[in-house]
Amino acid sequence: MSVTTPxxxxxxxxxxxxxxxxxxGKITVGGGAPIVVQSMTNTDTEDPASTAKQIAELxxxxxxxxxxxxxxxxxxAAVPRIRDKLAMMGVDVPIIGDFHYNGHQLLxxxxxxxxxxxxxxxxxxxVGFGKKKDTQFASIIEMALRYEKPVRIGANWxxxxxxxxxxxxxxNHQRAEPWDASHVAREALIRSALDSAKRAxxxxxxxxxxxxxxxxxxxxxxxxxxxxxxxxxxxxLHLGLTEAGMGSKGIAASSAALAVLLxxxxxxxxxxxxxxxxxxxxxxxxxxxxxxLQTMGLRAFTPLVTACPGCGRTTSEFFQVLARTVxxxxxxxMPLWRVKYDGVENLTLAVMGCVVNGPGESKHANIGIxxxxxxxxxxxxxxxxxxKAMTLRGDNIASEFIGILDNYVASRYASRAG
Length: 418
Fold this sequence. Notes:
The protein is α/β, with parallel strands linked by helices. The chain has two domains: 22-296, Alpha-Beta Barrel (TIM Barrel), CATH 3.20.20.20; 304-412, Sulfite Reductase Hemoprotein, domain 1 (2-Layer Sandwich). Helices cover 44% and strands 17% of the residues. It has 13 helices and 17 strands. The protein has an eight-stranded parallel beta barrel with strand order 3-4-5-6-7-8-9-11, surrounded by five helices. The chain has a five-stranded mixed beta sheet with strand order 13-14-15-16-17, sandwiched between helices. The radius of gyration is 25 Å and the shape is globular. It holds the Pfam family GcpE_C. Residues 1-21 are annotated as: Disordered. This is 4-hydroxy-3-methylbut-2-en-1-yl diphosphate synthase (flavodoxin). One of its GO terms (molecular function) is 4 iron, 4 sulfur cluster binding. [4Fe-4S] cluster binds at residues 308, 311, 354, 361.
């Protein structure tokens, strides 16, 4: 007698940790809201035109928050002009000001900047030093109170509060079983963030206007730090592997760290801190963040293409070209589709290279095509919602398949206008 064992249900991400939601313009971070994608410009903020242009590119790629460097009086003075340029471009994305060392001076000297920004980010490791630290920290928090802005208190492995490190090292020497150096550094990072948050609350900033982050550049260290801080507070948390690196290394490292935390329900907003290739668009980090969340089933941003990797059965690079063409077409159309069609981001597509897995994968997608492999008839069956709908042949398969995709979107998804 044969026994059929039911397939186990796929693992699902853990429920999000209960915490306080923070409003940043039109966006909510934490409090059960969807995980938010953010990015940062690398332009000179003193140049309003180039900075506004890059912010617009990032926003149109799907960045829901965009952070800019505010490091000089001229940069602070440029912020309202950047906001105005974005408004003229029809771009409504919250802008976050990134302050180090002199944020208290810049916000006080440029009230229009303090008003224009949607959130302030400060680093407890360099907001001030010695006797000036508490005064300068308090000055920024008081500006946030005056203009009703939220604040991210972002501790960073590379700019730890050295007085905190020294204090914890002294404490560690008194332990019966001292921690190792990395444990002490992690604790310094977490305590720096938590103590600063408490100080901000004591000054008057409510919990629903505070976000915390504790960034490091190592995968295992990041996981350990965020597990610990998530267990010790209910503030909204921003996730990111700092200085992740370039290309595949940066993508792999960021995904490895953030995926573990997100699977455990930790994290309310994320940034993928990639070093862009020379001359490459900054939007790559936005796409990686979106794809990470979407492939984990946490959010949907744009239709993704399941595509054959290729093997000895595939006869040409055509399926690779078609997969790229389809993915590029979808990304180009999404700004319009997102406005016009409800639910189109959940559309699934497949571009396959031979008969082995081609028809099966195509049937699992909303729209799929199985291109002919080595020794197969020169035809490409197209499957729509699991059923074979037609067969394409000849030199115009790519344009015909794009046409099928566009027609499906127009007919399948309810028009917002209608």
